[in-house]
Specification:
Elements (H helix, E strand, L loop, with lengths): L1 H9 L2 E4 L2 H9 L9 E5 L16 H10 L6 E6 L17 H5 L5 H6 L6 E6 L9 H8 L8 E7 L24 E7 L4
Parallel strand pairs: 1-2, 2-3, 3-4, 4-5, 5-6
Length: 191
């Protein structure tokens, strides 16, 4: 019957616009080698998705789902509280600090294993204070993504760089030669 073929084709592109949809996708065991494009957006209070609040295991669940989809060619991860605007006070919206950025590094090994990955969009709000910066950690896996052609990320600049600091937090390895387009959106309270 054509039903199985149609369902397989429809599940190649997966858009999950809330934590509850990510959780449901995982529970229903819909992840697999058939997924070629995965888009996940966790944007509470933004009007872009549902307003559910993710638990602390948020990033672990996303890492598990990515690991179950080894043939992803295009991955988009977006986690932003509000539209970027100078007029928005951020603090009232950061209700779940831990779910927002803690344990985000659990996702990096799963991304690193995506050997067919060609496009990566990683627009994650990293304004919540952390002990270490997740952006250099993300950059460290880029050289291992040999087929990556497009990389987009938001770089949050929450303080001015210290000119006295002798070492760079970024890896000393260049990005893969396949990388043709880089889009960095620099967001800063100083702009």
């Amino acid at each position: 019957s054509w039903t199985n073929a149609a369902q397989g084709a429809m599940r190649r592109r997966v858009k999950l616009h809330s934590y509850s949809r990510l959780h449901k996708f995982s529970e229903q065991k819909l992840a697999g080698a058939h997924v070629r494009c995965l888009s996940y957006a966790y944007t509470p209070q933004s009007g872009l998705g549902e307003d559910d609040i993710a638990p602390e295991t948020h990033w672990k669940l996303l890492a598990d789902v990515i690991s179950q989809c080894p043939n992803i060619k295009s991955l988009s991860v977006k986690s932003i509280y509000q539209f970027l605007s100078k007029g928005v006070d951020y603090k009232p919206w950061s209700r779940d600090h831990h779910a927002q950025t803690d344990n985000i590094s659990l996702v990096y090994p799963a991304i690193k294993e995506l050997v067919d990955l060609e496009a990566l969009v990683f627009d994650v709000d990293l304004r919540v204070p952390r002990r270490s910066s997740p952006f250099p950690e993300l950059c460290a896996i880029l050289p291992d993504l040999h087929n990556l052609r497009y990389f987009q990320a938001i770089l949050w600049r929450d303080k001015f760089p210290d000119a006295r600091e002798p070492t760079s937090p970024f890896p000393d390895r260049p990005p893969p030669p396949s990388l043709k387009k880089l889009a960095l959106h620099i967001a800063s309270p100083y702009v």
